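Thread: quick sanity check before group meeting

JM: Hey all, I'm pulling together slides for Thursday and realized we never actually wrote out the predicted structure for the chain we discussed last week. Dropping the sequence here so it's in one place. If anyone has concerns about the input, flag it before I start.
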Amino acid sequence: MPKYVIERELPGAGNLPAETLQAISQKSCGVLQGLGPQIQWVQSYVTDDKIYCIYIAPNADIVREHARQGGFPANSVAEVRAVIDPTTAE
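JM (edit): ok, ran it. Output follows.
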């Protein structure tokens, strides 16, 4: 199943308290339950003004629907075409 990177512009994201990040996570999980097992949240990375999320989903439309239902920005949704790391150089 395809993997996606979602870029969410959220000014001040890096300064959000743990309680707010927990609430965002809980909202996301609730929406995911409603959408069904075909979409899975893998992990997110919080930076100063953005959150980058990794999702496994059958298509980008369901990723965007998750954002719409959750009230989350999804400024960019990009399908991962390849994964590289230091072992790729070997």
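AS: nice. The radius of gyration is 14 Å. Helices lie at 18-35, 60-70.
JM: adding both to the slides.
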